[in-house]
# Entry
Amino acid sequence: MKHVRMAAAMAAALVSASPALAQGTLRIGMTASDIPLTTGQPDQGGEGQRFMGLTVYDALVHWDLTRADKPSTLIPGLAASWSVDATDKTKWTFKIREGVKFHDGSTLTASAVVWNLDKLLKQDAPQFDQRQASQGRSRIPAIATYRAVDDLTLEIITRAPDATLPYQLAWIGISSPAQWEKLGKNWQEFAKTPSGTGPWKLAAVTPRERAELVPNKDYWDKPRIPKLDKMILIPLPEPNARVAALRSGQVDWIEAPAPDAVASLKAANMQIITNAYPHNWTWHFSRAEGSVWNDVRVRQAANLAVDREGLKELLGGLMIPAEGFMPPGHQWFGNPKFKLKRDLAQAKKLLAEAGYGPSKPFQTKILISPSGSGQMQPLPMNEFIQQNLAEAGMKIDFEVVEWNTLINIWRAGAKHESSRGATGMNYSYFIQDPFTGFIRHLQCNLQPPAGTNWGHYCDPEMDKMFDEVRNTFDAEAQTKVLQRVHEKYVDEALFLMVTHDVNARALSPKVKGFVQAQNWFQDFGTITMAP
Amino acid sequence: MLLYIAKRVLYTLPVALGVSIVCFMLVHIAPGDPLTSVLPPDASAQLQAEMRRLYGFDRPLPVQYGLWLLKTLQGDLGTSIATGRAVAVELWSAMGNTLMLAVLATAIGFVLGCLFGFVAGYFRDSWIDKLASFVSIIGVSVPHYWLGMVLVIIFSVQLNWLPATGAGPGGSADWVWDWAHIRHLILPAVTMSVIPMGIVARTVRALVADILSQEFIVGQRAKGLLDLGVLRHVIKNAAPTALAVMGLQLGYLLGGSILIETVFSWPGTGFLLGQAIFQRDLPLLQGTILVLAMFFVALNLIVDVVQTLLDPRVQRS
# Structure
């Protein structure tokens, strides 16, 4: 009898713990190894901002994440509107949205935004937070000073005229000063019960294990009020563990399924969602003195040697072959003349014109990593390209370094001894705004250690265009300039442009209504769970 | 005995110091930068320098070590760079989770290991011995992370009987001893038990075979002692060594398995250590390794003492 009772209890527990629990609850397996920082300025890169930044918090400026069929553009967020002074192009005025409440009930004002900027930029402010500052400060390099003109007007002065300021501000989450005061002016306490103005509220968090978000029913942007009852975030850094969790019904959604798991996931009726987004996977060329890549013919030859369709097959279709530095169809793509296609004969011809041949074979060294955020499958992909280039007569040697080491080499620059004489580096990029997309890679004064122009590229003509980007305040006119920048990137083959990731995620068939924007960030408000 | 324990406790001090120095040097020699995990990749050199100063990484290594040691002696293991939480708090909750897993895995491993070892030793050279030895060799040789994945594929993905990851529906913070939570413990514990099972089985088999061949057993048999009585003597003689092996295995398992805890996303010390390594989280890494090493030393001490108590032949000065 005792056994029967125990078996009944076990069966009941099994039923209660089954996926049926997920009515209106979406459980997401993230690739991050910890819950991203919850205080307003998340760590864990793009994924942190996606799940713990733009869910609980709002920025002054938002990305429009409603469309899957075109790249996202900026839209008003906590700032209802903004303008730059007609005579002084460093002076910006932001009109703060009226009537917005933080989750703790306090009201958003321009002073609260100033308080938030101080939290990141002013080291002697009581609310200065080293951890948030380390995430946020590098996102807003343009800001010199700021002040609240009145309750709903914020003024920001930039160091120099810089039309990319709104893109920078889209990174900065606004936390509640009142909640911080209430919790004894303690960010560690704030991390447990944070308060922003975003569409989701953090209901519970267990470090390294899970975070529970519930809808903010009083959210100011009514169409974006989440339809779900709850969203649970679970860190699952191990790719196989993520797939197993999805297939066993422990989660309903996983980020970045491994390409070799896609077929089995599809066979198990899972939805594989992909879309273009501003990511690229390149070889960043060194342009330091003596680099083999200083000759445009060599750069073009390498770009013509890569078999991008073959690579796509290798990755089970989970990539978009590069046609330029930006993904095809991007608003900044323009109309470059140099077409990225496989043409071995032309590649060999260009290489011969550049003086390479049997008497002077082409040989160089490239830095690669065995893994890393955004690096996709770096080892097989690089070996595939190595084979492609060998067919064109270009011998490539690899220096494999661990991912964190590669980041440090990337910061140090191609001329630094840590680059070990390599003339290129396989690096993948977040290219969502003009600065991260173009300027940081190639502006003269951003050569290391001042910035991350790893290859020490410097072209006054390009610098002039970057200045134009920063000084063109009309969005359409700025897009035209950015298209010209991109055309120069492609026509002069400034990088080995290989592929774009497709932001793959696998969803249980029960997940409905998700629109995957062409963006690193996503809106989870439209999602519902089928019973 | 008290003097012996006091002496052994004193011996742990140089061990602790040695571990802390080796660990400190190793994490600094390894390539990578602790701030890589904290700062966005394109943080400027100025911001990096400033953060390095704020975290105290701009100081000479001996000074950094001295300061860390001083704090540790006062019971403060510092703050994790990656999470900003106190290392002691992170470690405490992870150790609780690993303890559950390790004790269960050791219990499974010890019971099965003794059973297989005993049977194999008692029926030496028979087919039972061969079968039990085969199982124990498999236990020692099979890569346990691979076994973990296979168990997940069978029991989680295909049969959907047991969960694949995590420490319960509400995470380890809400742990209660009910089926909904215990089922999360089963697959990692079984995976983890395989190695101690193999080792204990092989040790017990050798012990039993050795004891059975000794003259006092032959004498007892000659005096007419029944099999059951002989068995009692064999167990009594084999127990101290078997227990010592089990204690050491528990020590290994308490260190947490980076691979198993990662495969099952079990929030224990192995998982924590793995993350600390990948994130170059120096305070977390140093604190965790030091505490785990001390744990191992303490466990060795306990095993020695228990062994002395169980076996009067072991004389200690």
